[in-house]
Design goal:
Two copies of one chain form a homodimer. In chain A, a hairpin with a 6-residue loop joins strand 1 (53-54) and strand 2 (61-62). The first copy, chain A, has 199 residues and is an alpha/beta fold. Chain A is built from seven helices and six strands, in the order αααβββαβαβαβα. In chain A, 43% of the residues lie in helices and 13% in strands. The first copy, chain A, has a four-stranded parallel sheet. In chain A, strands 1-2 form a two-stranded antiparallel sheet. Chain A folds into two domains: 4-51, RecR Domain 1 (Helicase, Ruva Protein, domain 3), CATH 1.10.8; 54-172, Dna Topoisomerase Vi A Subunit, Chain: A, domain 2 (3-Layer(aba) Sandwich), CATH 3.40.1360.10. Chain A has helices spanning 4-13, 21-32, 36-49, 88-96, 118-134, 150-163, 188-196; strands at residues 53-54, 61-62, 81-85, 103-106, 139-145, 167-172. The first copy, chain A, is globular and about 60 Å long. In chain A, helix 1 crosses helix 2. At the A-B interface, helix 1, helix 2, helix 3, strand 2 and helix 4 of A face helix 1, helix 2, helix 3, strand 2 and helix 4 of B.
Amino acid sequence: MLPDPIKKFAAAFAQLPSIGLRQATRLAFHIASLSKAQIRELADAITALGTLTTCTRCFRTHLGSGDLCAICSDPTRNTGLIAIVEKETDIISLEKTRKFNGWYLLLGELHKSGELEHEQKLRIEHLKKFIAKELGGKATEIILAINPTVYGDLNAALLKKDLEPLAQTITRLGRGIPTGGEIEFADEDTLGEAIERRK
Amino acid sequence: MLPDPIKKFAAAFAQLPSIGLRQATRLAFHIASLSKAQIRELADAITALGTLTTCTRCFRTHLGSGDLCAICSDPTRNTGLIAIVEKETDIISLEKTRKFNGWYLLLGELHKSGELEHEQKLRIEHLKKFIAKELGGKATEIILAINPTVYGDLNAALLKKDLEPLAQTITRLGRGIPTGGEIEFADEDTLGEAIERRK
């Protein structure tokens, strides 16, 4: 009953994360109603994503001719300082603070179970080899820049155990009351952390 | 900070209904991580939507060489019987019942205010002209196949008033307890309709 191009689009896009078949079908009809120029713009935007490559050190997506991304190929960056993050957008947020001069290992989103996926295990192995080869066996610091949630804490604890021998110190991001937040509305855990980490 | 192709994709896709900038950005990174072949498949799926055309009578999206879609060009269909629908997928659902032998006017999603958009007004005008020219001024029946919600009722009432002189009868879809549903869980309105429409 559905025209073939609608079906094909829906099937392809429903495979992407956070898009269901129903939403994909409605998107298809919407896009079909756009002008030829608008449709070309969308197709070109996708094709252009194919020009991006993955940094061979940190696994970030980057637009460059070399193997390394702009951060990993920057000689002023401290290679002994490594932040492990889940998402590309987390790197962008951390870079915006201009408070971090190391490099990142992009791990991908972590499972609630604390178990690493095959690809994530490979990335951790890759990090271990880098530390052995380039840093003489010990990084100065590994920051586990993972969300401070119950599952994040579980994953961080497991990663910490695994990486303990490879860094002088393993840290996580500070916790406390967010800037602009009010003590009245902070939950007990956050407030507890804020007291302990007072300065 | 974001690579250019990621930014462009996010901007283009965030303009589509039900996709926000945040979701579009995450989609972009995901698609960038796919193989060249998978990226080409997605781009091709979009390009193929450009081959679809809009039926000049009912405004459905269709894949054909003529001006009219398969339903509107079918000589066994009763042109005096018209169902006004909001969505393409509603047409598909109604066709699946095999209980309707007329044709559809695709109006697009209606506003909660009951006001028609410019394009929707044009489609109603187009319907009026069709009835004047092809049906001698009166359709046999116009079914307002609009969702039985508060806003749907408002829109249907306004459309009914507007179309009253153009059809022998104007109806809406029957209401009652859905097949498989239980009286115990039916709301008062539905049950009231079910009693009135008993047969």
